[in-house]
Design a protein that fits this description.
With 181 residues, this protein is mainly alpha-helical. The chain contains 8 helices and no strands. It folds into 2 domains: 133 residues, no CATH class; 46 residues, no CATH class.
Length: 181
């Protein structure tokens, strides 16, 4: 088992409410393993949903394990935490009234550094886009219809998301885009 897979297993071990959802994910992917980044997307989504319903009972233990992994992990583990968990939490929560700042109180020092680094990357991308130096392309799933895609026609992300009825697809799209407030 890779270091990043071990980290994922350790982190979810303190979230018993995630267990049945994780079994469902594994069943959908069977016979393959979904991969650590898909697994972390699912877990990030779970954490955002748990915060929304007011159940943060596992957060202290979960984020303590995340901090331990961040303190002791190699580059692979740090990337999984940064991109797989924190970027997904930040992006998903940006599409909810809660916002991302609600998670800060559970972050240890190394986790906070990784969290802030992800925000810096997104701020740099936003600045490049504002300056016209970053051209946003149509989402990859619309490659066959670029000329008629909603993004190419100037439709906003929010408008496009209103038309997405599949919750899994919506979660994927939201994890790839950050709503600006």
């Amino acid at each position: 088992m890779s270091a990043s897979s071990e980290c994922f297993a350790a982190v979810i071990s303190d979230a018993p409410g995630f267990e049945s959802r994780w079994r469902d994910v594994l069943a959908r992917w069977e016979p393959e393993y979904p991969g650590d980044y898909n697994a972390m997307l699912e877990f990030a989504s779970y954490l955002v949903e748990q915060y929304q319903v007011g159940d943060t009972s596992c957060f202290a233990a979960v984020f303590a394990k995340v901090e331990h992994c961040a303190q002791s992990g190699d580059w692979e583990v740090l990337n999984l935490i940064s991109v797989g968990l924190f970027e997904n939490i930040q992006n998903l929560s940006s599409h909810r009234p809660i916002g991302q700042a609600v998670f800060l109180r559970w972050l240890g020092p190394k986790s906070r550094q990784l969290w802030d680094n992800m925000n810096e990357v997104w701020a740099e991308l936003a600045e490049l886009e504002r300056q016209g130096r970053l051209v946003e392309k149509a989402p990859w799933w619309q490659f066959w219809r670029r000329s008629r895609s909603m993004v190419a026609n100037g439709t906003s992300l929010d408008t496009m998301l209103q038309n997405v009825t599949n919750p899994d697809l919506r979660r994927i799209i939201e994890s790839m885009h950050r709503r600006r407030r």
